[in-house]
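hiii so um. not sure if this is the right channel but i have a protein structure encoded as tokens and i wanna go backwards to a sequence. like what aa goes where. can anyone help
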């Protein structure tokens, strides 16, 4: 046996048959060592003594150290019945059955003679005897009493009264007299409680053998009559329910031509209890699924069970008589095992995990519990070890640990394991004076994949990306999924930033390859932020923060790129965080305002509507345009409440103009967040209700990205708004990838040409072709067309020539809180 850790008291105690065996055997062996009246010893098939308890030393005059390892027949002579004794033992070995208890007259090595009452029984394994246990009681004194009784003659009454054994005189079946010892044994007040009764009156209905007491009593009585006397064991039951066992010597005598008998009874309940405990312990020992090994005080093995052979591959015969250190696998220094024995010597117990090696040279973990058993003199008499194979438990622990440290979807290290590895990488970098790179990766527009194709496709994409990322790094590097579509990579021990840039380029190329899943072909891109230790930080938190900042910068610069961290990026992120915090108070502080830009009909020059444009009157920064804060509001979840405020304010202002005699349509831009929120229709209803504005005077502008989402919820929301009479415009048309098929699904009223096309009039021939094409598309869908960003008469003339309906821009009017609604030049 060997182990991976120094010997020490363990903290885990396996439950089950092995633990039960340990407790039972410990109590039993300890009891046998301390039992003052029962001598217990065992021999193997060759008659060699393997166990010798403390009482054996008193009975045979031979200590355990002198007896163990020697033939039993060399320790005492059975005089003229030596052959009979050997035949009795041989019969037990051959039949596997317990020999009937009987008296043996022996002569010890010191010449002293003893009478022993002995029971021999085998310990079986698979029905084959493995050891032969013997329990013996010194009955020399009783033999002297019997002899004196016979010789006493006239003095019988005196001996009868003084005998320490219970004596019962029987005439026929009835008890006619008992001595004081019998009164005490049967727990009676006086003779009158016994005389006149039979021994059957103090017996249970059925004996332990399964025979009824009546039948068994008739048999022993007949045997005593034929042979003159007969010795047997009997179970008695007293009126108070207590049972006890007695050894009975039943003798038949003839007095005045009348047949009498007397029974000498000795309480053997302690011995029977010990026999039962020994039999139970033997069964537990042999049938335990955990390996059990027992040694003497010199660490010589005296018993192993079948589970030991199964566990170690070592047969019992190979280890019996050998020292426990002989079981070492060679994987540890001898000092390891000496530490175990030293610990047991002080604490009487040691538990710990040990690595064993079978004959086939495969190693496996075992939980070993070693216990010292002490005799009445507090000296160690035996050691017992119980070994439990914990291979499955270790495998389960490893599986649990793996699940706790890895992402359930991709099986990549999760944040817990990632942080541990990053900490180790930084410690190594400081020691080796090298660099470590942390790469923060975020898939671009991944949410659209989940929304368009479903989460099952999104999960398949994440698993494929995880596989590709792992293929781009070395074995010493770590790829971790942090959650959602975010991944982090540790590049350990790199030479410089060029190596990190090379890996980032490889990652971008790998991720860009199309992913096929569930019949769909999906194109991906990734934004990557890189922080280098020690240049960009020395601790885990700083490096992660800076890599995240760099990734955010890569996204801000158009996505599908990687960016190294620098101080300017951090300043930008700090500013963004400040804006987010200030945005959260802007609504309650009434810092927002709306400016309105007129929308003019090209044919009539009349102002037919206005577009509400949000501004932020910042207390320190002044008036901020939408591009300076709207992206932040969308990312931090503030766009919905801000959008609801815009709706209410715009509707209220449009109603006020109408009341003043200027009925114009007010256009309000909707964000994607408002569509996803699910409460858009209710918000529109509330704004119209509170303002009293007719629905046809509200125009909601929807971006192409929302239209392209095409999910059922979006279609239903657009339809519900149109049913209420609200006008719907597709905003920034031409900048996305919408198709006629998608547009036909929505009940739109107007199409707005993006300013990027208007800006190029009349410089580019491509634009000269695109704008008429866009107008043609709108006409095919029966939509009005409005162009934004018109700044020159030349641009207006071009639009008018190609049939555009309306326009807005600086040429007509700049946005203001009080727009000029008078007619414009045509």
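sure thing!! here u go:
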């Amino acid at each position: 046996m060997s182990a991976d850790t120094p010997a020490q008291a363990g903290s885990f105690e396996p439950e089950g048959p092995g633990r039960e065996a340990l407790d039972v055997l410990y109590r039993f062996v300890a009891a046998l060592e301390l039992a003052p009246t029962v001598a217990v010893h065992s021999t193997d098939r060759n008659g060699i003594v393997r166990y010798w308890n403390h009482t054996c030393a008193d009975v045979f005059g031979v200590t355990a150290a002198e007896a163990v390892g020697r033939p039993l027949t060399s320790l005492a002579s059975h005089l003229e019945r030596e052959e009979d004794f050997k035949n009795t033992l041989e019969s037990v070995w051959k039949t596997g059955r317990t020999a009937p208890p009987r008296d043996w007259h022996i002569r010890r090595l010191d010449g002293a003679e003893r009478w022993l009452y002995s029971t021999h029984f085998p310990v079986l394994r698979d029905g084959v005897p493995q050891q032969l246990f013997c329990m013996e009681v010194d009955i020399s004194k009783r033999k002297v009493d019997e002899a004196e009784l016979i010789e006493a003659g006239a003095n019988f009454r005196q001996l009868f009264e003084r005998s320490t054994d219970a004596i019962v005189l029987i005439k026929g079946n009835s008890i006619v007299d008992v001595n004081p010892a019998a009164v005490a044994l049967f727990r009676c007040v006086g003779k009158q409680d016994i005389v006149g009764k039979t021994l059957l009156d103090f017996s249970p209905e059925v004996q332990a053998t399964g025979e009824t007491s009546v039948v068994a009593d008739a048999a022993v009585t007949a045997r005593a009559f034929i042979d003159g006397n007969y010795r047997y064991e009997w179970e008695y039951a007293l009126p108070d329910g207590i049972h006890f066992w007695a050894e009975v010597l039943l003798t038949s005598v003839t007095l005045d031509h009348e047949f009498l008998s007397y029974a000498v009874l000795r309480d053997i309940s302690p011995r029977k209890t010990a026999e039962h405990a020994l039999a139970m312990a033997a069964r537990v020992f042999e049938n335990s699924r955990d390996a059990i090994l027992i040694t003497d005080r010199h660490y010589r093995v005296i018993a192993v069970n079948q589970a030991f052979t199964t566990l170690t591959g070592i047969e019992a015969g190979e280890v019996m008589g050998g020292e426990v250190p002989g079981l070492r696998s060679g994987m540890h220094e001898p000092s390891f095992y000496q530490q175990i024995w030293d610990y047991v010597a002080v604490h009487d117990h040691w538990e710990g995990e040990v690595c064993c090696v079978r004959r086939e040279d495969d190693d496996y973990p075992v939980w070993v519990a070693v216990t010292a058993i002490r005799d009445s003199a507090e000296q160690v008499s035996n050691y017992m070890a119980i070994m439990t194979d914990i291979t499955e438990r270790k495998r389960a622990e490893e599986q649990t640990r793996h699940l706790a440290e890895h992402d359930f979807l991709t099986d990549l290290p999760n944040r817990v394991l990632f942080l541990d590895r990053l900490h180790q990488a930084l410690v190594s970098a400081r020691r080796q004076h090298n660099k470590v790179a942390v790469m923060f990766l975020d898939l671009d527009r991944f949410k659209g994949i989940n929304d368009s194709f479903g989460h099952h496709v999104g999960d398949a994409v994440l698993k494929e990306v995880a596989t590709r990322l792992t293929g781009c790094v070395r074995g010493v590097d770590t790829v971790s999924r942090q959650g959602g579509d975010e991944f982090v990579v540790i590049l350990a021990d790199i030479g410089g930033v060029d190596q990190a840039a090379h890996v980032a380029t490889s990652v971008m190329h790998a991720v860009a390859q199309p992913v096929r899943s569930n019949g769909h072909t999906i194109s991906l891109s990734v934004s990557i932020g890189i922080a280098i230790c020690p240049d960009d930080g020395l601790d885990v938190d700083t490096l992660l923060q800076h890599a995240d900042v760099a990734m955010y910068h890569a996204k801000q610069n158009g996505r599908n790129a990687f960016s190294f961290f620098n101080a300017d990026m951090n300043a930008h992120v700090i500013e963004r965080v400040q804006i987010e915090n200030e945005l959260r108070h802007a609504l309650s502080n009434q810092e927002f305002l709306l400016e309105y830009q007129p929308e003019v009909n090209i044919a009539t020059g009349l102002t037919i509507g206005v577009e509400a444009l949000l501004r932020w009157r910042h207390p320190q920064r002044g008036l901020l345009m939408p591009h300076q804060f709207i992206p932040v509001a969308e990312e931090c979840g503030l766009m919905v409440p801000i959008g609801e405020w815009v709706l209410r304010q715009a509707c209220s202002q449009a109603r006020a103009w109408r009341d003043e005699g200027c009925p114009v349509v007010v256009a309000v831009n909707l964000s994607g967040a408002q569509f996803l929120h699910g409460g858009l229709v209710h918000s529109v209803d509330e704004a119209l209700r509170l303002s009293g504005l007719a629905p046809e005077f509200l125009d909601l502008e929807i971006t192409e990205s929302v239209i392209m989402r095409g999910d059922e919820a979006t279609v239903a929301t657009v339809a519900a708004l149109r049913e209420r009479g609200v006008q719907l415009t597709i905003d920034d048309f031409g900048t996305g990838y919408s198709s006629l098929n998608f547009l036909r699904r929505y009940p739109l009223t107007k199409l707005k040409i993006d300013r990027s096309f208007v800006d190029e009039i009349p410089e580019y021939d491509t634009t000269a072709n695109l704008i008429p094409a866009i107008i043609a598309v709108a006409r095919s869908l029966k939509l009005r067309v409005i162009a934004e960003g018109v700044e020159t008469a030349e641009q207006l003339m071009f639009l008018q020539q190609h049939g555009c309906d309306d326009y807005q821009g600086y040429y007509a009017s700049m946005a203001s809180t009080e727009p000029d609604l008078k007619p414009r030049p045509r």
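oh and Confidence is low (pLDDT under 50) at residues 1-14.
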